[in-house]
Amino acid sequence: MRRGVILVSCVQCPQRISIDLPGAGTINGPHPLLGSPSVRPTGNPTSTPNPSRRRASLQEDAEKETPATESLGKGEGLVWEEEEGRATLILTFTLRNARKAGLSKTVKVFQTFEAGIQHLETRQAKKSKNTTDDLEFFVKCEVHNSDVSVLINSLKKVAEDVKTIREERGMQFPWFPKKIRDLDKCHHLIAKYEPDLDHDHPVSLRSSLGCCSFRREVYRKLSSLYPTHACKQYLDAFQQLEKCCGYQEDSIPQLQDVSRFLKERTGFQLRPAAGLLSPRDFLASLAFRVFQSTQYIRHSSSPMHSPEPDCCHELLGHVPMLADKEFAQFSQAIGLASLGSSDVEIEKLATLYWFTIEFGLCKQNGSIKAYGAGLLSSYGELVYALSNKPEHKPFDPELTAVHPYQDQTFQPVYFVAENFEDAKAKLQKYALKIKKPFSLHYDPFTCSIEVLNTPQKVKNTLSQMKEELKNLCFALENIS
């Protein structure tokens, strides 16, 4: 599973950055997008203005303006949390000519109000005339409640498109995407390896003359096992992929063709990912029936196993199962359960994902078959998992979610589901026990998530369901 944490990441350069202003730290650099360390505040009175004087000046200016929280609009997907007089503010803004004075002025605003930067990300501005110096920022910081409006008004003077939102008091929960376009913010990478620098590592971005031959070997050996080791749903979809998407020894399936194939069958679509994503971001994508797919390929020195998910794992392991409607619903159920969940619950859901979607087994016609992508893309572990060497346990979400797992060797234990319908029912029952201050509803027509926090929203959702039930009843009448 894609695990780990990067506190600060950048879309174009996943190099780690740490930001810490007075009470929090310094900007470590240089960084390709943030510039050189010369812009960082040192906290030395001889080199920076008097913070108290600057604060007073900014407060005086802010009092003459409309409070920022009234003029920012609703915003989307940005959360406000409050605790003990301190506010955790999450906001986005755009800086023009960030390499020049823009970043320095912005840093001074956060420094003046002694904001503790907890998370910062940058990416190139979407609407930019200058492709290198115009940046979009995503910042999570902690400030005193009384300073929030002043800080935002001050930030608006040096930045553009400043956006934030204040949720209902007491509704404290992690941010999660509510629209499919919000997945643009779900890109926190976990850098475990540097395959482009280490050519001997079992994952490589490097192309080689032997690539085609070892790819044929992977396809040939794995496909020879599928008839006896893979579940029926996998076999049916794999046959269709060979027919429609070029799944053959001598061809490379194109991501767009495969994504179109999935979209027509289950509504899932593939989204290119630069590498391993954090568990929260990866699971959130599943809620929208979006699968984040890596683009690199395993090293030719290890054709039958990859320590990280590569395109062989995605195309041979995940895609065929995502073409099955029952399994697609199961996958989305895990994603929906993750939205707004605590870090502890995310860890449990990630473990559930590991033992089901990655390394799950199921019963079919009195035999045990594989449906997990990690098994179906690894020749050695697929043979091992269905042998009498490992332990097989019944799938129980409560136990599975806290069971230790292995990511460097074969699993000593695998969990066996009765069938996908049973596994989905157990997972949904488990998800209902996750403590959240709200309920969620996925709208397949708009591909969006609605928070059911008012009676009217619940009524609207019920009204949609009633219309669907009427159509189904009418269809039954016509059939009979």
Describe the structure in your own words.
- The protein is α+β, with helices and mostly antiparallel strands and 480 residues long.
- It has three domains: 37-172, Alpha-Beta Plaits, CATH 3.30.70.260; 203-431, Orthogonal Bundle (Phenylalanine Hydroxylase); 440-479, no CATH class.
- Helices cover 39% and strands 16% of the residues.
- It has 16 helices and 15 strands.
- It has helices spanning 51-63, 68-71, 98-112, 148-158, 211-229, 232-244, 255-265, 279-287, 311-322, 325-338, 343-358, 373-376, 379-385, 397-400, 420-431, 455-479, and strands at 80-83, 86-95, 116-124, 135-144, 160-163, 203-204, 269-273, 290-294, 297-298, 361-364, 367-370, 391-394, 413-417, 440-443, 448-451.
- Strands 1, 2, 3, 4 and 5 form a five-stranded antiparallel beta sheet that branches. Strands 11-10-13-12 form a four-stranded mixed beta sheet. Strands 6-9 form a two-stranded antiparallel sheet.
- Helix 8 packs across helix 10 (325-338).
- It is globular.
- The two termini are 48 Å apart.
- 38% of the residues are buried.
- The model is unreliable at 1-49, 65-82, 166-171 and 193-210 (pLDDT under 50).
- Residues 22-77 are annotated as: Disordered.
- Its cofactor is Fe(2+).
- Belongs to the biopterin-dependent aromatic amino acid hydroxylase family.
- Residues 216-480 form the Biopterin-dependent aromatic amino acid hydroxylase family profile domain.
- It holds the Pfam family Biopterin_H.
CATH architecture descriptor of the largest domain: Orthogonal Bundle
**How many DSSP-defined strands?**
15
Oligomer state equals single chain
CATH class of the largest domain: Mainly Alpha
Which residues sit in consecutive blocks of at least 5 with pLDDT less than 50?
1-49, 65-82, 166-171, 193-210
What share of the residues lie within helices? 25-40%
Arithmetic mean of pLDDT: 76
Query: How does the helix and strand content classify structurally?
Result: alpha+beta
Please compute the radius of gyration using only Cα atoms: 25 Å
Largest sheet: 5 strands, antiparallel
Terminal residue distance = 48 Å
* CATH topology heading of the largest domain: Phenylalanine Hydroxylase
Total number of domains? 3
Cofactor: Fe(2+)
Protein name: Biopterin-dependent aromatic amino acid hydroxylase family profile domain-containing protein
Biased composition (Low complexity): 41-51
InterPro entries: ACT-like_dom_sf, ArAA_hydroxylase, ArAA_hydroxylase_Fe/CU_BS, ArAA_hydroxylase_sf, Aro-AA_hydroxylase_C_sf, Aromatic-AA_hydroxylase_C, TH_ACT, Tyrosine_3-monooxygenase-like
